[in-house]
Amino acid sequence: MKKLIATFAAAALTALLAATTLLLGVAATPASATTPGPDNQHLASRAPLPGCAMVLAPKASSDQGRVCLQKSVTLAAGSSAAASPGVCIYQNGPVFSPAWANGWELCAYGSGDLWVPPAYNDQASSWISGCTSGVFYAYQPGTAPWGFFPANSAGNFPWGGVPNDALSSLSLDWPC
Fold it and tell me: Do 84 and 47 contact (CB within 8 A), yes or no?
């Protein structure tokens, strides 16, 4: 029964997002995504911290000083833990540039909805996704403007309807 409800909820969200696109003219899918290439190694090095849904690295280029900002219990009901990040967002862009490597990194693990912690809200400039797809939101999950991101891709904000330095929440489709 839970699986049926989850399937129905996913279909309803897809329909809602499509209707939002038609009504508001907000782009659901960006024109193109870049292939991360060397990112596969970068995300693979970002092992989860025990019981953590969102991990901060003070510098995107380093594993030193990583801390848990959100425990897994903050994930939506029915979500699960993960072995590698579903998506990492970055203070700086463009992705893979020298500026990107010097800013902070927030990596999200599991599935379901996550809110960007207040100290990092409305500051993301780029992102890299792992094995999952999902949606970025400028406000709370399920609201416009939003932008779908595909699995195993990377990009810079603005993305879809989410402007640069406007990311407030995200949704991960499944755990990696």
Answer: yes
